[in-house]
UniProtKB/TrEMBL annotation:
Highest classification ranks of the organism: Bacteria, Pseudomonadati, Pseudomonadota, Alphaproteobacteria, Rhodobacterales
Limits of the CoA-binding domain: 9-107
UniProt name for this protein: CoA-binding domain-containing protein
Xref: InterPro entries: CoA-bd, NAD(P)-bd_dom_sf
Gene3D superfamilies in the cross-refs: NAD(P)-binding Rossmann-like Domain (3.40.50.720)
Domain of life: Bacteria
Any Pfam family matching the protein: CoA_binding_2
PANTHER family: COA-BINDING DOMAIN-CONTAINING PROTEIN, CYTOPLASMIC PROTEIN-RELATED
Organism: Cereibacter changlensis
Length: 138
């Protein structure tokens, strides 16, 4: 993935589902979600253990299927690599406007990437948008 492609993704994307969001302020998923919200993105937390709670001005979703009508363009995944194919499969099934699957630092899955790319969805692996935005001057 080139810097130009990442810049385009981060410039054009407006609505992001953060899978594996945590209410714990020490967790990277919470810090990154808050950073993205502060940058003007609509960020929808996804965590079945906290479904129905309020965070980032949104109701925490139990799963991606609950976001079918929310216009999610990007799924930002904070889960172990082995869980990613299941997340991507659910995203592809539930989110018709999905454009990007983003896997956080240390998270990769060639199987999930192949599945997403076969549906025309861009894939970013092992990167963090909260690092990429300032690095690219966005």
């Amino acid at each position: 993935m080139t810097d130009a492609e990442i810049s385009q993704i981060l410039t054009e994307t407006r609505t992001i589902a953060v899978v594996g969001w945590s209410p714990n302020p020490a967790r990277p998923s919470r810090r990154v979600a808050a950073y993205l919200k502060d940058r003007g993105y609509r960020v929808i937390p996804v965590n079945p253990g906290h479904a129905g709670e309020k965070a980032l001005g949104e109701t925490v979703a139990p799963d991606l299927a609950a976001l079918a009508g929310e216009g999610v363009e990007m799924v930002d995944i904070f889960r172990r690599s082995e869980a990613v194919p299941e997340v991507v499969e659910a995203a592809l099934a539930a989110l018709p406007g999905l454009k990007v699957v983003w896997m956080q630092l240390g998270v990769t899955s060639d199987a999930a990437a192949t599945m997403a790319e076969a549906k025309g969805v861009q894939v970013v692996q092992d990167r963090c948008p909260a690092i990429e935005i300032p690095r690219l001057g966005l």
